[in-house]
Structure formats: structure tokens, C-alpha cells
Amino acid sequence: MIELRATVPSTLHQSFAGDVYNSAVYLKRCFAEIETSVVTALGEDNLSKKMRERFVSEQLNTQFVFSHNTKVPGMYYIETDDEGERSFIYWRDDSAAKKVVEFMSEDIVKQLSTGDMFFFSGISLAVIENQARPQFWEIVKQLKAAGVKIVFDPNYRARLWDSVEQTKQQYDTAFSLCDITLPGVEDLETLYNVKSVEAVIEYLTPYNIDEIVVKNGPDSVITKEGQTLQSHSITPVKNVVDTTSAGDAFNGVYLGARLDGRTISDAVKLGAKAAGTVIQQPGAIAPKDVFQQAMAQTGL
Ligand code: ADP
């Protein structure tokens, strides 16, 4: 999406962001050798062109970034008040990204089937149009059958959905198909009335997901792989500037680390360091040098 951020009065800073994109950026910044592709649809306008250029400048593969001939990208405006409270305005109901499934031909799915991992979020699901969802699930099943690990972050945004029932139905399919899930406690509370990491794990256990990673802000991260439950402590950051994309940074770096063969606890450490760094900077994407310097301290 196009991000517009209020800076000094009457001035807007324009950048690009979106949960899955943010994760891809941080994954690639930490694990340059892992080929990382973005699957989305943009338009043929100048901002779409710039967005595509930005993807390339972040070393992301744009082979699956499609161009819609009439639509334009979604956009949001973010404002932070004196207490650091964020508010958003969105223009996204008619975005090019809503049409992405139309571009996912058999040939494209075949190419995606050669990958190791396919990641999507609750926001991706909400953005995909109702009538395109059955086709999306067919694609996910095909990828899974081809041995691609399916990864799902519920990232629940109530205002993107018609009803809680509709969300639950889609999430049920997502949890049934995924191999790894990375929920936040807050995300699932409204939907399933689960109020703690333990309750989230209990709720997800019947789905037989290989790897469950529950994020709980500065408190802790709990993981469950097979029958092994682990609690990982987080070093709280004192100077929190903007929590946008904390979870996204965590996801990207965690998944990169797992693809790189790191253990779950090392992957959590790296993901948490990335998230802790990003929340000390305004906006979804932290400046590359600041991010790289912080990650270098981990001996990555
Ligand atoms: P989301 O952004 O999806 O709501 P969380 O708020 O749970 O997710 O944050 C994601 C990750 O960001 C956490 O698992 C943690 O590693 C890190 N994080 C969040 N808040 C803080 C904080 N105050 N101090 C340090 N790390 C934090």
C-alpha cells in the first residue's frame, strides 16, 4: 500500500508498506541469500511504478508482482497523537491487490510450487474478494501438496471483514492448511475469546499445526513444535516510538531464520531483536542502516 504519514503540519511523508511486504523486506535484509518474492497486484500508474522499484531496491523478486490495467494501489494515512496513539484512514476497497488471484494462472502456481514457503496473513485473506477465495484455497492446497510450507499470520483487522462469522470460517480453513502459524494474542481474543498465550495454544492444538509461534507484545513469545512447548523471554524496549509492523518484522526474520536452518529459540531471538529495533523508528520500514547495525549486534 501507499503510506502517507503526517509529519509537521500540512506535510505528508509518502512511503510504501503492507504487512506481508514488511515481513519480506526484513527477511531479505537479514538473509540476503534467501530468494524472496512478493505476490501482489499493482496498477500501471506512476506510484505503482515507484512501488515496484522499491521492491527491487529491497532485493525482492517482482516476478509475481502483476499489473492491473485499470486499478491503482490501496493507500492509508497514519497520524500519531501526542500520546503516541495511532489513527488510520484507508482507501483500499477498490485496490489492484483485491484482484491478485485473477493473475494466479496454472503456470504461476507451478512456479510458486518450487518455493520452500508460502506466507499469507489475515489481511491478505480479507483483501482477496469473496468470490476469489475458493480459488485461493485451491492454490494453497496445490502448493501444500507440492511440499511448500504454508505459513499464516491471522493479523486480524475487524474493519476489513463483513462479519466475525466470515472471518472465523476463513481462518478455520487457514489453520487447517498451514504448517506454521504466528498469531498475536490480541488478534485472536476478539474472535475466539482466548485471552492468554496458553488459551491460544489450546485453541490451535486440534489443528495439528507443526509450528505455533504466539506473540504477546513485550511479555513473551511461546512456541509449540510437536509436543515441545517453549517460553522465550523478550527484552522490553523502553523507547517505543511506533509499534507499526513489530509483528511483521518478527515474522519475516523468524521465518528467514527457520529457512536458514536456525533453531526455534534462535529464530525467536532474531525476530524479537528485529521487532524491538523497528518499534524504535517511525513507520513500518526502519532505515536500512539502523536496522542492519542493530541486527549485526546479534552476530547474525
Ligand atoms: P503485533 O505487532 O502483531 O501486534 P506484538 O505486539 O505481539 O505483535 O509484537 C510483535 C513482537 O514485537 C513481539 O513478539 C516482540 O518480539 C516485539 N515487541 C512488541 N512490543 C515490544 C516492546 N515493548 N519491547 C520489546 N519488544 C516488543
From TrEMBL:
Coiled coil: none
Gene3D superfamilies xref list: 3.40.1190.20
Recorded GO MF terms: 2-dehydro-3-deoxygluconokinase activity
SUPFAM superfamilies: Ribokinase-like
Ranges for domain Carbohydrate kinase PfkB: 9-287
Keywords: Kinase, Transferase
One GO location term (cellular component): cytosol
A biological process term (GO) from this entry: DNA damage response
UniProt record similarity statement: Belongs to the carbohydrate kinase PfkB family.
Record protein name field: 2-dehydro-3-deoxygluconokinase
Originating organism: Pseudoalteromonas espejiana
